[in-house]
Amino acid sequence: MIFRRLKSRPSGGERALPCIPAGLRAYAIGDIHGRLDLLDRMLAAIHEDLAGREPAENHLLILGDLIDRGPDSRGVVERLSHYHCRNVRLVVLSGNHEEVLLRLLQGEFGLLDDWLTFGGAETVQSYGLDPDELHDIGGRAAIARIRGAIPEDHRHFLEAAVDTVKIGDYLFVHAGIRPAVHLSMQLQKDLRWIRQPFLDDDTDHGFVVVHGHTISREVVERPNRIGLDTGAYASGRLSALGLEAGERWFLEATQ
Prior knowledge:
The strands form two sheets. The protein has a six-stranded mixed beta sheet. Strands 5-6-7-9-8 form a five-stranded mixed beta sheet, with no helix packed on it. It is of the alpha/beta class and 255 residues long. The protein has nine helices and eleven strands. Strand 10 and strand 11 form a beta hairpin. The protein starts with a strand and ends with a strand.
């Protein structure tokens, strides 16, 4: 099922929604976690939504955690690394799950067992490897097999991901930010991993933070942040946000 909820700019004395510049449109998709089926449905919904709108410079932002936990991490990376849609610019942000995989591929074999336990097993299966066998052989030998199974272009695609994108009054990031710290001074660890104190902080950051990383049953919409991780790998619900001028709307793909 696909649905859209449109929220227009308030009128009169009400406070206006944050804006993005005229002529731009942005879509942000929450944590995919190997659910290629839901990603394909979401992309179809976004393309349908685009077809009903005026021409604009369109940005499609993937908020990280493309991989792990769900059944087809390889398919998700392949789909996005070859994504092309006229007048749509794709931008991928790095999540904590991509970070751990890339650190493994760079030789941090001490991360292997935890990674396999917390979602990596499904990823290596999608690349044709047996996670139990990798656990048994361990260390450098296991990492060598993972390196051999993951295509080089997939690795380069994940390495090219960015940590933040700012469009108008919105900041897009995987996990969140450290409150009261200027954006230029934020630590990469926080951008990819933080939960508290970010989630409970209600101060005005100077922009609305659009993020994933922390699962909620529904999209979280607060004055200073919007959380889009609705647990697609387990819930079967992938959520996205659309922005244009002073409007925002939400899309959901379900299994």
